[in-house]
Design goal:
Elements lengths: L4 H7 L5 H12 L25 H19 L11 H12 L7 H8 L15 H8 L3 E4 L3 H13 L3 E4 L8 H4 L31 H14 L6 E2 L2 E9 L4 E8 L4 E6 L1 E4 L22 E3 L13 E5 L3 H10 L5 E5 L6 E3 L9 H9 L3 H13 L22 H17 L7 H4 L11 E3 L2 H6 L4 E4 L3 E4 L3 E4 L4 E3 L2 E4 L13 E3 L6 H5 L17 E3 L13 H22 L3 E4 L1 H15 L28 H7 L8 E4 L6
Parallel strand pairs: 1-2, 1-7, 2-3, 4-18, 7-19, 8-17, 9-10, 9-17, 10-13, 11-12
Antiparallel strand pairs: 4-5, 5-6, 14-15, 15-16, 20-21
Bound molecules: NADP nicotinamide-adenine-dinucleotide phosphate.
The site of NADP nicotinamide-adenine-dinucleotide phosphate has 23 residues, from α10.
Length: about 650
């Protein structure tokens, strides 16, 4: 622990100064920290650059160090909950931009400035608590969303059971163990809002660190006693007479068991089942062949000829890792990914930053908010389609074209000595059409290696010896790796769901999955999906934020049942239809909805079934609590 002001001053060299100044407002009660000459002017290409002159930065650090020193010596925070007007100024200040008014409520809630968060379950009265105790919820999945659901249900006093096919918690972070796997969202934002981790080792930590975070959460909240591992939920069927879901579970011994629950929450993500391409000769390859999400750690790649099919987010991470070890790496690309410059992608979080996060109250919140703003909402205007845009299919607006130019310039600079690669790695679709990857140079460095070849000719078939492209060229290989993504639009494909009147959810969808707010489904009472249809985000927001909103809504739905003495709720068809109509119209207005883009965001009918087309703030608002008017609520049926 630093003892002198000078030591603290030194530590603060690692801190994000605008977030620090916002925290100082609360520590000192002085809004003078937000003075115009200290307002940051960010440079999108240089993360640490706040535009504040160096001598002013030194003054800020000195003054902050004095305040922190006094606080550590026992001085209480002068103004932990500033007036709304000040919060508004803090918000604009840290973002370096004027943020719309509607964010104020959101931020006050996220910062828990009033001591409570809308995400905390509020079953206040004994009557509600008693009703909660009489419910039983079945949660499918013990990944990020399933654990979150368990935490909130436990806080609400609702009995629950979580079932997961895997042997441990963590979901995608348990399954994806390929070399180089890491989060592509700033970790200080990719964590539960109520469980910040001030010790993230990197800004974008590797998979084992993420898995350990979720294991730690399961331990802290004592969730494992509620979880059945290595068990698959095969079917859930609505029992009309008794208003319960009957779920058939299959354990790893193959035995089945039926359990009942008043509500079912699916928390299985969108990227849950690997997708293998439909290529002639699949399965004929004689050597080891596996998917990135099912990495074969027993297969030694050293000195082998390796073929990789796909250049999405997963391949982008593992190709640079394996390239130095293998004898020859052939990467088959159908469409290249856009890479946006993020130089600190693999960098450690400096020790001073970790100290500040841990010891300066509210610094972590303001830093999180800054990340949230800069990497999500602040980025949206650049991927919004301009209906009057006539600059060609490679962009959707002038601003989007500017982003393209910036990304291409960054590629070109990295490929100065290999200009032949530039046209191959430059996408012809707009930036934001698919999820962009974070570019710190390792991808193109790998593609430039002598032992790596990027092939853009179509894969025609797979043979026992390797891959043959449409031009007849054969690429022999010892190992074949599929980086071909997930069956994303095939929602809940492993689970048979029979609702009212025996109606099958997948038949009702007809391959075109929809839900109301991604969560509820007409005809399927008390069925809730987290990270369901149209709740994915493209430009790098945190999906944990979405899950927290959805879980708040689901707990609110259970409360609504308790308050109204109802046994069931399901959205009205008209509400569901109207919502999905608005979603479709809005999705058409973004780069990912462009007709020139084909991606896993679109289903077989070309409809964008994955993405949320509004602001994150809109999801936050829409999921504050269920609007009773949106639902049909029913009392329990009399059992004869
Ligand atoms: P993906 O982005 O869907 O990439 C699949 C790749 O396989 C694409 O390049 C695709 O080409 C290619 N492909 C599919 N079929 C093919 C065929 N028949 N021939 C040639 N190429 C073929 O999958 P992913 O990389 O697993 O990532 C999926 C999502 O998971 C990401 O968008 C992201 O949301 C998430 N993810 C996140 C991280 C992280 O950093 N946290 C890491 C991995 C994944 P086309 O582009 O032409 O379809």
């Amino acid at each position: 622990m630093p003892e002198t002001v000078a030591q603290i001053e030194e530590i603060l060299k690692d801190a994000h100064l605008p977030a620090l100044m916002c925290a100082m407002v609360q520590m000192t009660g002085d809004a003078d920290w937000l003075r115009p000459e200290w307002t940051p002017v960010y440079n999108p290409l240089s993360r640490g650059d706040t535009g504040i002159p160096e001598d002013e930065q030194a003054k800020i650090r000195r003054r902050a160090a004095e305040a922190i020193h006094a606080h550590l010596a026992g001085q209480p925070l002068a103004q932990p909950a500033p007036p709304t007007e000040t919060i508004r100024r803090q918000m604009d200040f840290v973002a370096g931009a004027e943020i719309p008014e509607q964010y104020v409520d959101f931020l006050v809630d996220e910062l828990v400035l009033k001591g409570r968060s809308s995400k905390d379950p509020h079953f206040e009265t004994p009557k509600l608590q008693d009703a909660a105790r009489r419910l039983k919820v079945l949660v499918v999945g013990a990944g990020m969303s399933g654990l979150l659901t368990g935490i909130r249900l436990a806080q609400a006093g609702v009995p629950f059971e979580i079932v997961d096919k895997n042997a441990d918690v963590g979901g995608t972070w348990f399954e994806n163990t390929y070399p180089g796997c890491r989060v592509d969202n700033s970790n200080h934002m990719y964590s539960y809002s109520f469980e910040p981790n001030h010790a993230w080792p990197q800004h974008f930590s590797p998979q084992p660190v993420l898995l350990e975070y979720f294991r730690g959460i399961a331990r802290k909240y004592d969730l494992k006693k509620h979880i059945r591992f290595e068990t698959l939920v095969e079917t859930v069927a609505w029992d009309e007479a008794r208003s319960v879901w009957r779920a058939t579970l299959r354990g790893k011994d193959g035995k089945t068991e039926v359990v009942e629950a008043n509500a079912v929450v699916t928390a299985v993500g969108q990227l849950n089942r690997p997708r293998f391409p439909d290529i002639e000769g699949m399965g004929s390859f004689e050597g080891p062949a596996f998917h990135s999400a099912e990495w074969r750690h027993d297969v030694d790649l050293k000195g082998k000829r390796v073929v990789v099919i796909g250049t999405g987010a997963s391949a982008y991470q593992f190709v640079p890792e394996i390239a130095p070890d293998v004898a020859k790496l052939t990467v088959f690309q159908r469409n290249p990914p856009w890479g946006l410059p993020v130089p600190h992608y693999h960098e450690d979080v400096p020790e001073g930053m970790k100290w500040t996060l841990e010891h300066v109250p509210y610094y972590d919140k303001w830093y999180r908010f800054w990340l949230f703003w800069m990497t999500t909402e602040g980025f949206l205007p650049m991927v919004k389609s301009d209906p009057l845009w006539n600059g060609g299919p490679g962009a959707v607006s002038e601003m989007n074209a500017g982003l393209r130019d910036m990304a291409v310039a960054s590629f070109a600079a990295q490929l100065a000595e290999r200009p032949d690669l530039l046209p191959k790695v430059t996408p012809d679709y707009p930036v934001g059409g698919k999820r962009a990857v974070l570019d710190n140079g390792v991808w193109l460095a790998a593609l430039k290696r002598d032992n790596v070849e990027l092939v853009t000719e179509k894969v025609a078939r797979i043979t026992p010896k390797g891959v043959v492209t449409a031009d007849g060229q054969e690429y022999e290989a010892d190992v074949l790796i599929y980086g071909t993504g997930f069956q994303a639009s095939n929602f809940l494909s492993f689970l048979k769901i029979k609702g009212r009147g025996g109606q099958d959810l997948h038949e009702a969808w007809g391959g075109d999955a929809k839900a109301y707010l991604g969560i509820t489904h007409p005809g399927f009472p008390n069925l809730f999906t987290i990270y369901g249809p149209n709740t994915n985000i493209v430009v790098n927001g945190s999906i944990i934020f979405f899950s927290e909103c959805a879980v708040r809504y689901i707990v609110g739905a259970l409360k609504l049942l308790a308050e109204t003495g109802s046994a069931t709720m399901e959205p009205k068809q008209a509400v569901y239809d109207d919502f999905n109509k608005r979603v479709d119209e809005a999705n058409a207005g973004w780069a990912w909805g462009s007709p020139h883009v084909s991606s896993w965001y679109k289903n077989q009918f070309g409809r964008v079934s994955q993405n949320w087309p509004f602001g994150l703030i809109d999801y936050w608002k829409a999921t504050l609590e269920p609007n009773p008017g949106d639902f049909t609520l029913e009392k329990a049926r009399e059992v004869a």
